[in-house]
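Entry 12.
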Amino acid sequence: MRDFGSLNWAILVVYLVGNLCLGYALSKRVASAEDFFLGRRSTPWWAIGISVVATYVSALSFLGGPAWAYEESLAVIAIHLNYPIVIFLVVVFFLPFFFNSGVASIYEYQERRFGPSARSVMSGVFLISQGLTSAAILYGTALVIEFITGVDVLYAIVIVTLVALAYTILGGIAAVIWTDVIQAGVLLVGAGI
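Predicted 3D structure (tokens):
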């Protein structure tokens, strides 16, 4: 195992335990399926927006982006120039619309607007694409953990998955959103350093 250092281990453990504690604290607000899936519809729109951005900016973005630019030149940055525009449009227009529309998900909206077949197709496409994307992100995160700490990739995958599952199961979507807000802060500090 690499010499990760006591301070680094302490920070990592505090971060993981903090996520679990946040999930536990938010679990006290979960009394129904609506609370679990919609966070009582009381989560501020800006926190949801930060969560969307933090979810989009993953370990692969931090690792893959610079590596891709190094390999192919900075011309690859042109692909990413539209991201701030898209994120702005989603956060300012789409999130408030869906937040105030009374639907639990975009798929419920699609069913109301286009019928159950459209909802089923879009849900299936999302599950497959998100499953593959999540697997790649989880593997990339595990590789970073292995490189930095020396913890085996398989163990890193299990640990990260269990922590994320635990705080999600405990606190529902509210726990996911607020841990994403914290992770966005960590990513911002990391990018600044």
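Annotation: The chain has one domain: 6-186. Residues 153-192 form the longest helix (40 residues).
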